[in-house]
Structure formats: structure tokens, C-alpha cells
């Protein structure tokens, strides 16, 4: 009898011990899960706080850059401390090519020059420009080897082309020959704008756009940009060459005769639309804000705004 009771109590003790261990294990998992959740929440909260502070820094330096009295090389545009840093650059929107103003029959040669300098075959360049013109113009007649509605309709795209100016650069991706452009120049977006006054700003435009508009060699355009950047060879610094007129810039480009008269209406030296790129950084988090501002030198008006988080 004692033996049976001993086995019974021994069995009950073993079961109880297993139950205790199971309870401890469950509680441990619960505590661990809760702790991980709390750590995640703390980390997430800290991250959101850092993003917010970075946005504030970017916004504040953008406000400084919008002041008409602030020059592109002003030391107020950079600063910071251990808690965070900020910087801003003031760029001319005219340093990009106004696609709507140049996708026209009279100015098509500029786009052809550009696409060919980027490595596109001459006939492919002409076809792409034809298609851009057909997209922008209001009529339904195909330009050269362009594409009007019957072409797109046959391919299940009845709403194309829009027959109006581009309102978003992403619309270029809908043009039939766009893949050829994307293949030769993946970063093509950084060379076009929809917001400038329509002329190329010779005070800040890159060499490849200057070569396309002026019709000069890429080497001549590169030499012009080097001279324009001053003795330090760095753009947006105090020693940059300042032009008093478009004629002065064209003199440096050695552009004379009838070509000069045709080029003059395509160029400027100080586009009234500016692109302010402001960056705020807190720890390993950076936020970039891009402000497109009209009449920067008098009464600034914001035309467009975008923001993104950068990877550091």
C-alpha cells in the first residue's frame, strides 16, 4: 500500500514540476516578447523623432536660402553641431533644359544635338524628337516619324499622346521611343525641367546642355564651364565668373555671326526660377527638401516642393 501511495505522489510531483517549468517558459517568452516590443517602440520613436528634427533643420535652412539677400555661396547655408547639421544650395532652374519649350519644330535641333551627344544614333534621335513634338503639339498630324493617336490606338493606348505640354517628367516614359533614351541616359531626368523660364542659363548649365543649345563641341562647352567655375574649379563659390549679359557668355564660347542671333533667344544668365535643395541630418538620418521658387531675387513664390529621406 505504501509503495502504491509513494508512486502516486511521485507521479503527481513530477506532473506539477513539469507544469511549473511550462509556466516559467511561457512567462519567459511573454516577458521576452514584451521587452522586444518595447525596444522596438523606443527605437521607432527615436527614429521618428530624428526624422522630424531633420525635417525641421532642412526647412529652416531652406527658409534662409529663400531670402533674396542670400547668395549661393553664403556661409549661412551650412552649419550644425553634435545634435544635427544642415546645408542648402541655391541652383538656377534654368541650368536644366525646358523640355516643353524645346520640343518644337523650330528648336528641335537642340534636342537632336543632345541625344546624339549622349550616344543615340542620328535617325533614332530624330524619331524621338518627332515623337516629343507630337506629344506637345495640339494637332493630330504626325511630325516626320512621330506618333499620333492612330499609332497608340493600334497598340491599346487610346488616350495617347496627350497633345499638350508635359506636366510631369514621368510622362516622357509613355513616349514610344522612351526606352532608347532610358538606355543611353538613365539619369536623363536631372537634365530636364518643367519649371524654368524656358531659356538655358549659361551661368550654371552643365557642359552637355550648353553644347546642345549652342551647337558647339562638347570640348568647347567643358572648357567654358571650367573657366566659369573660377580658379578653384568649384561651382557656386565666390570666385565664379559672373556674366553681365548673354552676349558676354557667348563671347567666351566664341559664338559669332548668324548663329549667335539664333542662339540669343534660347539663353539667359540668371533664370528667375531657383531650385533650393536643403538637407537636414540627425545621426544617420538625412532628409532632403527641394523647393522650386519663382522670383527669388524679389518676392519669392513656391512653385513646387518635394521631400525624401536619404540613405547615409
Structural topology:
Layout: H1 2-65, E1 78-81, E2 84-92, E3 97-98, H2 99-102, H3 108-117, H4 122-136, H5 149-153, H6 178-184, E4 192-193, E5 200-201, H7 207-214, H8 218-228, H9 246-252, H10 258-263, E6 267-268, E7 273-282, E8 285-294, E9 301-311
Helix pairs in contact: 3-4, 3-7, 7-8
Descriptive terms for the model:
312 residues; single chain; five-stranded antiparallel sheet; Nuclear Transport Factor 2, Chain: A; alpha/beta; two-stranded parallel sheet; 17% strand; Ribonucleotide Reductase Protein R1, domain 1; 44% helix
Walk me through what this model shows.
- By secondary structure, this protein is an alpha/beta fold.
- Among the domains are: 53-94 and 273-311, Roll (Nuclear Transport Factor 2, Chain: A); 99-185, EpsJ-like (Ribonucleotide Reductase Protein R1, domain 1).
- The chain has ten helices and nine strands.
- It has helices at residues 2-65, 99-102, 108-117, 122-136, 149-153, 178-184, 207-214, 218-228, 246-252, 258-263; strands at residues 78-81, 84-92, 97-98, 192-193, 200-201, 267-268, 273-282, 285-294, 301-311.
- Strands 1-2-7-8-9 form a five-stranded antiparallel beta sheet.
- Strand 8 and strand 9 (301-311) form a beta hairpin.
- Helix 3 (108-117) packs across helix 7 (207-214) and helix 7 (207-214) crosses helix 8 (218-228).
Amino acid at each position: 500500500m505504501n509503495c502504491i501511495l509513494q508512486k502516486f505522489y511521485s507521479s503527481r510531483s513530477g506532473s506539477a514540476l513539469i507544469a511549473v517549468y511550462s509556466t516559467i517558459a511561457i512567462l519567459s517568452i511573454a516577458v521576452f516578447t514584451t521587452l522586444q516590443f518595447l525596444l522596438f517602440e523606443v527605437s521607432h520613436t527615436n527614429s521618428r523623432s530624428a526624422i522630424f528634427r531633420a525635417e525641421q533643420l532642412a526647412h529652416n535652412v531652406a527658409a534662409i536660402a529663400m531670402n533674396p539677400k542670400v547668395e549661393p555661396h553664403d556661409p549661412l547655408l551650412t552649419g550644425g553641431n553634435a545634435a544635427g547639421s544642415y546645408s542648402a544650395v541655391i541652383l538656377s532652374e534654368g541650368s536644366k533644359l525646358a523640355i516643353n519649350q524645346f520640343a518644337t519644330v523650330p528648336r528641335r535641333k537642340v534636342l537632336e544635338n543632345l541625344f546624339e551627344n549622349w550616344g543615340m544614333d542620328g535617325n533614332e534621335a530624330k524619331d524621338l524628337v518627332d515623337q516629343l513634338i507630337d506629344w506637345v503639339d495640339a494637332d493630330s498630324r504626325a511630325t516626320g516619324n512621330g506618333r499620333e493617336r492612330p499609332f497608340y490606338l493600334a497598340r491599346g493606348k487610346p488616350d495617347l499622346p496627350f497633345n499638350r505640354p508635359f506636366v510631369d517628367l514621368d510622362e516622357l516614359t509613355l513616349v514610344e521611343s522612351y526606352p532608347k533614351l532610358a538606355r543611353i541616359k538613365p539619369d536623363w531626368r536631372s537634365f530636364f525641367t518643367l519649371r524654368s523660364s524656358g531659356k538655358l542659363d549659361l551661368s550654371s548649365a552643365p557642359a552637355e546642355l550648353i553644347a546642345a543649345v549652342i551647337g558647339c563641341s562638347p570640348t568647347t562647352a567643358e572648357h567654358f564651364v571650367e573657366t566659369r567655375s573660377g580658379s578653384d574649379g568649384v561651382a557656386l563659390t565666390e570666385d565664379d565668373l559672373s556674366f553681365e549679359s548673354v552676349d558676354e557668355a557667348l563671347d567666351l564660347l566664341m559664338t559669332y555671326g548668324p548663329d549667335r542671333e539664333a542662339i540669343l533667344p534660347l539663353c539667359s544668365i540668371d533664370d528667375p526660377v531657383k531650385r533650393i535643395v536643403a538637407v537636414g541630418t540627425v545621426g544617420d538620418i538625412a532628409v532632403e527638401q527641394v523647393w522650386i521658387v519663382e522670383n527669388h531675387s524679389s518676392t519669392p513664390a513656391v512653385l513646387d516642393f518635394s521631400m525624401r529621406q536619404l540613405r547615409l
